[in-house]
Design brief:
Elements: H1 10-17, H2 21-31, E1 37-38, E2 44-45, H3 48-62, H4 67-103, H5 107-120, H6 123-143, H7 149-167, E3 178-183, H8 191-202, E4 206-211, H9 218-226, E5 230-234, H10 241-254, E6 259-263, H11 265-268, H12 272-275, H13 287-298
Parallel strand pairs: 3-4, 3-5, 5-6
Antiparallel strand pairs: 1-2
Helix pairs in contact: 3-4, 4-5, 4-6, 6-7, 6-8, 7-8
Length: about 300
């Protein structure tokens, strides 16, 4: 890529950042924090990136840092950004390799990559940023007809088995409310629900996991027996949203103390009109959203 060309002379830069040309030359000589190019006459020319960095350094000096401290902070920030970029690239490659293995029905390779992911990242990171992202991608590919039902079933089987093992390995806190987790009516795609369920299971909640769509009327039997604080429903396909919303209305009318959460690909793609009246039920897109929703819901008044 072509290097950015210098376009500001030292006098212009001095006026822009508020320091004397002699001070700027001394900083460059002592700390080598920037390297302005030279024109044919040998005069310094500074780029927009140089200006950005110099303004940042001046802001730190004005805040009470010495110039040497400010330069050290700048170097540290650069190293941190480089590390973050490297980690994100590694995460992306791992995610792509796992998706490719699943689409090739390569069970051994898929398990090796999942093991590698858990060795490199936290459980939450693997669940949300790798498995959760792959789940969404597979759902989209299936909806668009770019993969077969066999691909979707194979991927679901592999990921469900790994998530299921994890789910039963975490202790539960009997002081936390009970939770029922189920797919919405006519919804059979349960990986999203599994990932969300594992997230709350890790927090110690006692989760009764029902999985894919159960027979109409059975959910009331479960609620009467378990008496949970929360009911979480997942909806992946847009066509199933109307029945999910109808069920929420019916249950909120019948169970005044029940807090109902709704998530999944179809829910996350709803427009503003579709969300109207259901804002309090939407659990969100990521771990931060889920944390926030649960925290607010624990303090939520009855319906």
């Amino acid at each position: 890529m072509k290097a950015e060309e210098g376009k500001y002379n030292i006098k212009a830069v001095s006026n822009m950042i508020g320091i004397q040309p002699g001070t700027l030359r001394a900083w460059e000589r002592r700390y080598q924090m920037i390297a302005p190019v030279r024109n044919d006459s040998g005069h310094r020319l500074y780029t927009d990136e140089h200006i950005r960095k110099l303004k940042w350094l001046v802001s730190k000096v004005n805040a009470g840092f010495t110039i040497s401290q400010a330069v050290a902070l700048s170097d540290q920030e650069h190293e941190e950004i480089t590390t973050i970029d490297k980690n994100e690239n590694q995460l992306t490659l791992l995610r792509e390799d796992l998706l490719r293995a699943l689409m090739k029905f390569d069970e051994s390779k898929a398990h090796d990559l999942i093991n590698e992911a858990f060795s490199l990242y936290t459980v939450d990171k693997v669940l949300v940023d790798i498995l959760g992202s792959i789940l969404i991608k597979i759902g989209l590919l299936w909806e668009e007809g770019r993969i077969t039902t066999a691909h979707e079933h194979f991927a679901t089987s592999i990921l469900r088995s790994r998530i299921g093992i994890l789910m039963h390995s975490f202790p539960q806190n009997n002081f936390l409310p009970k939770v029922v987790a189920v797919c919405s009516p006519d919804e059979w795609h349960e990986l999203g629900l599994l990932i969300f369920t594992l997230f709350i299971r890790r927090k110690g909640f006692n989760v009764i996991y029902l999985g894919s769509s159960i027979k109409e009327g059975d959910i009331q039997t479960v609620l009467d027996t378990v008496e949970p604080k929360f009911l979480f429903m997942s909806c992946t396909l847009k066509v199933n949203l109307p029945r999910a919303k109808d069920l929420i209305r019916d249950l909120e009318s019948e169970y005044k103390e029940l807090v109902i959460g709704l998530g999944g690909h179809a829910v996350n793609s709803m427009d503003e009109d579709e969300r109207d009246g259901f804002e309090k039920n939407l659990v969100g897109l990521n771990k931060e959203d889920w944390e926030d929703w649960i925290s607010k819901s624990l303090n939520m008044p009855a319906n």
